[in-house]
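Hello forum,

I keep getting stuck at the same step: I have a sequence, I want structure tokens, and every attempt I make locally crashes halfway through. Rather than fight my setup again tonight, could one of you with a working pipeline run this one for me? It's a single chain of 810 residues.
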Amino acid sequence: MDAAGMPTRKTGEKFAFQAEVKRLLDIIINSLYSNREIFLRELISNASDALDKIRFISLTDAAQLGEGDRAKLEIQISADKAKKQLWIRDTGVGMSKDDLVSNLGTIAKSGTSTFLDKYASSGDANLIGQFGVGFYSIYLVADHVEVVSKSNDEDKQYIWESTADGSYSILEDDYSENPDLGRGTLIKLTLKGDAEEFLETATLESLVHKYSEFINFPIMIRKEKEVEIEVDDDDEDDDEDDDEAGEEDADRDLDNVDLDDLDADAEDVEEDDGESFNTKATITKKVKVQEWEKINPNKAIWLRSSTEITDEEYGDFFKAISHSSEEPAHWTHFKAEGDVEFRALLFVPTKAPWDYYDNFYQRKANVKLYVRRVFISDSFEDLIPRYLSFLSGVIDSDTLPLNVSREMLQQSQALKTIKKKLVRKALDMLKAMADLENKYKNGEELDEEDDLVEDDEGRRREEPKEKEPYTKFWQQFGKAIKMGIIEDKSNQHRLAKLLRVYTSRSTETYTSLDEYISRMKPDQERIYFVSGGTVKELSKSPFVERLIKKGYEVIYFVDTADDFMMQSLLEYNDIKFQDVSKEDLKIDDREEKAVFKELKEEFKPLTKWWKDILREGHEDNADLETVKLSNRLVETPCAVVSSKYGWTAQLEKLMKAQALANNQKQAFMKGKKILEINPHHPMIRYLKDTVEENSEDEQATRIAQIMYEVALLESGFDVANSKGFSDNLYSMFRDWLGGGIAETVDEADDDKLDEEADQEEIFEGDYHDEDGVGGGEHYDSEEGVDDKFNFINRDEASDDSWREDYSDEL
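Reply #2:
Ran it on my machine without issues. Output:
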């Protein structure tokens, strides 16, 4: 019994989990990694860790690093196509025999993790390889692996080899096939038949740029190049006699050729008196040589302090990661601390790609995630929102939760924190661009942190390098910000601050919402806007007539995204937006309200009559809800506005243009239309007087229908029955011209048609039928007969007398 009086459970027999190594390797190789090219990243990461280890150890024991070539800390990559082998070598800490058994012979045993445990009290060595499985990704591309390694702890060099069959072997290296490493590790991969692409230098170089570009240590790749050297003419003749032997010697000897000595060997011999002479004729010969080239010249500048980095360095780095020749428009460089620590460097490009908006919903930000400078991913659906996909840059963190394959991030609270900080910093960067432009426009003094330039004498002058940085940004990426207003509710207000628009007072330059509010009238309670095709069209829109006349400023939305954006952006700084093309327009004028109320009673019979004649017997006008007086029109007799929650005319056009538009859904969302009439317009007054005398007047009815359809067009809507609309217009024009004119035209047309029919009958009967000449190639028209026989009038040739006169021609 235990202390609580419960029966004590017996201790069971303990067993160890059994793992079938071959099966485990198969899972790691075929299930852990989604892309086999990842093997090179893993090997370079391991090599980088080995180099970091020896450098870390040498801080307290310099002798461990060695001298001469042994002291060089670098990674070398070379390929042998003949043997189908890929070599990756580092001059790092190396491994002893026991290390080979412990680290490579035990799956999921990480030498890096052990190293960190050992030196935990000495500080963080900043190493990435801590899972112990990355090495086995080599079997994605190789069917035989040799690991040659030499540690400072042992005098001997050992070889570890395996074919991933569940076993491995270790033997002492006799140096018959492998170089004396001195210290470090050489991995020799014999590639599978379907992996020979990784023997191509261009492929290897591309993978290094993708995954390991910012490794701290030089990554050298062996390249074959063609150089020109001068040789004696006699030697050239000998080479031609035995060309094959010469090529073999060149391939064997030029591996170690020193290019700096080639020119020296070809120099003329100088005598003591300074005169040079050459006893043999020399010629130029092209030979192939092998040499090492560094392929990761770019540095991880985000790890440095921003005060130490010049604008030129930032520009060069942006060009390197974005593959652009343009300078960046702006950038932000920051370090985030707290629950999640990371460094980030984000750039705003100067220009958008030509197809940026064509693939907007599939486009990803050109921002790469690194963990200790090793590339992890560039898929940022969870970190960079789509509307910021124009950004380029890097994020580097030491604390992100990665899965074992390091190809993706695990879902966690850390991701949400990083995303929030990234978006905040990106929007702050855009706001800084806008503020800088405003300071220049307003002639304000620039702060020390503002972007300044030097004049020819090196003095600082208060003038930004780019006078309109944000305007140019908006022209390129403004639509993306509008999509952000729609999609990102949590940052909608910050994004709305970045919004730029045209207005009735600013038709050629952009205005911000803050500037609009600063110009609002004291009694103005709404932000007025209207959407349409162009600024010129909207400036003449009937919807803005009275607003502009009374001194109100109206925003002109001319972009296709604006109508969708305004469905989400309902207010700004607690001021509601008002679409002036909708029915609920409110203009604050108490004096006019009283007059307007009297006019509504006066015109009530006309509005009722107009609604009835438009609705009765006209299915095309079924979406007309009512007819009422307007307080927004000045010069236009009438206009059609949308219901409060219905689509505007512009939005209706956009939805109709969708390839997969749903007509039933559109009918519901379009809402109702309201015909608003201007009680001060003479045409409306004429209709009012006419209807009061005779409500059955046909002309008044026709005019009312035509005016409604014209108002539809002028308001941006489509006329449902375009044929009926045109017939009504033509009918009205014909009545206006007068009945006599119309009858004369009809009679003239009938006479002409009758005359042509008679002439055709005479000509075809006498010529084609009786003479038997078919086809009418030359004589099947009146014009043809006149030209051939010089007839003046076809009626005069109704008999056959003309045949005798023109028998020769026939």
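Residues 739-771 form the longest helix (33 residues). If your local run keeps crashing, start a new thread with the error log.
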